[in-house]
Amino acid sequence: MLELEELLEIFNNGKTLEMELDAAEACNYYSREAQKITCELNYKYHEFDEIRELFSELIGKEVDDEFRVFPPFYTDFGKNIHLGKNVFINSDCKFQDQGGIYIGDDVLIGHNVVLATLNHEENPEKRGNLCPSPIKIEDKVWIGSNATILPGVTIGYGAIVAAGAIVTKDVEEMTVVGGVPAKFIKKID
To answer: Given 46, 82, 111, 120, which residue is catalytic?
Structure first.
């Protein structure tokens, strides 16, 4: 089985993870670990300090004292989520973080947002392989409810992603985007 550091090396260098036995065992192991923590987070009442403690365990590093998440929260890995200060994640969000999710300071993430950092190979014989690409959310971004951010996207400083948007490409700072796929709506004054 691959160790966590080996998995992160592959994911964070944009390498394709070939799903042979060692890789599959490692992915399954860390997925089950994330499930255990998120089940505890999602199916019992916790005060904010307890939530922060559980989330810190989930991502493998301490979160800021101002960090808030309203459960339920879902992830299938957890160990490649990186949070700035004063981040708020509303309920029912789903983070597929193997490829890396980097969230800056003072970010607001609405209900039911999906952050997806993985693709699969097109060749059906290799389709089980994982192709990671990070999502980067810069400081002071607001992501509206039911938005989906796809692999490799950077959302610039102060931008707003409208509710229901599907973001397939980078978003410039201080802009509003929306729609399917998301398109420029306006600059923010």
So the answer is: 120
